[in-house]
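User: Hand in any protein.

Assistant:
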Amino acid sequence: MILVLCLVIFASPTGSAKATGFSDVSSFKKEIDYLTQLGVINGYNDGTFRPSVKLTRAQAVVMIMRAIGMPESNSFIKDPGFDDVGPSKFGYREIAVATSAMIISGKSSTQFDPNGNITRAEMAKVISKAFKLKGVYVSGFTDVSTGYWASSFISSLAANNITVGYSDGTFQPKQPIDRAQFSAFLARIMKPIFRPSTGSPAHTVLDIPVESSIIDLEKDPHKPVVYYLDSKSKSLVRLDLATRDKKVIGLRHPAEKLVEKNGKLFVTQLIQSRSPFNSMKTQKGIINVYDSDDLALIKEVDVNIDPYDIAVDDTETLLISSGSDQGYQAEIQTYNWRTSEKLSFVNVPTQQLIELSPAQNRLYSIETSHYTGRIVTFSLAGGKLESAPTDPRYFDTMKLRGYTQMTPGGKVMYNGDGTAYALSTVPSEDLAPLGKLATPFRTMTFNEAAKKFYLADRTESISVYDNDTLDPYATLNAYGRVDRLVYVKELGELYAFTKFKYEGAKEETLLLERFQLRK
């Protein structure tokens, strides 16, 4: 990692690295052990770490700038004009680049004070600007006024859980920062699991490895359990968020969708390449049925369709849309999974998203490829689909997004472009537009008891909406870009599966972040 080189100045002039267990370390032990095991920082030959040794301004800038990257050519480096930092001095290049980027400034126009101790306030500014931290720590610190020059930087540091300040509610901005404190800051930036819980709601990263390429996820309706599919490893995962127990099984074929119903998991299996030239006559696929507790395979159900999306009603009738074919020759088919009997079909365009009403009597088919977007309604009775009368609607978007979500009560359906539609068995009222949310979204989850819902759109921001007004009124900040949101009513907690890129890493890592909403 880049940081391995940038932190060698932490080493003792006579010291050698020690992996863990420094005799003089009590605070920030996990963070210091983590950086030591990486070879990022070293202890001394006498087995000490000397956590209280103060950091100089030059040392801090060198570490930060090498962490975020320096230009390879000196032609891009402008002399900062400090009399006490010449080209031959330690940290000259880094100080020059950091000053030019306005990450740090000198004590005056001609003095940088490279050997002076860097204060906690100065470090907050350097870290916030270098790593582009954003956010506001609403609680604040008693010794940091809103007019203080470093107030916004300290606030963003706390908002991202890099610091919690001191137990008396202060930040002590003028105090020099030491080796232990800086180790904590750095480790928390590198690995969010070290970030302590701060703010309201409390926000932490769980120490649970999560597969990197989740393509579908569903919460158990009665337990604090989530099930998800990972495309990279071709696996089905059961994760208990209360006990942290995790079970993983491999899949023979690629899978895209899963549904939980009556203690069973229904998982689509693709056994042929998806193609517009695969007519309904040549299509085939498999639906695997698993026990939701132990993931034991109950049955493989052969279906005459290339499964794209799936829904399951209370009688466990399978409703499957086709991922191949073109035009209106594709279908949505229904099956009795126990007998593999095909019960009915309706013609639709290919690759339809389908949403089944909680009353189990209406199915909505959402087309996202048409230039205006379309939603078509079907009735469902006895496992058979039929066209349902609905007043023609013009959907106010050039293209409906490939994500839809129905409210738990089945009264509203949201599309990922932000539009909301009323749902009703009365044709004149069904799919009536209710308005548009302030933001589009990629993932959504509901907190029925609090009459809230949460949504995100591949950024670090989670918008909190009011169920009745459809207005946003709060924002939660995740560490990584939000991929999936799940509200767990049994625990009163919101979970975010997020994509986070560690400093120096080539690929993103999936984090599991928790917001403890219950007071």
User: Anything to note?
Assistant: The helical segments are 2-6, 29-37, 57-68, 92-100, 120-130, 151-159, 179-190. Confidence is low (pLDDT under 50) at residues 1-19. The chain has seven helices and 28 strands. Residues 209 and 257 are 22 Å apart (CA to CA).
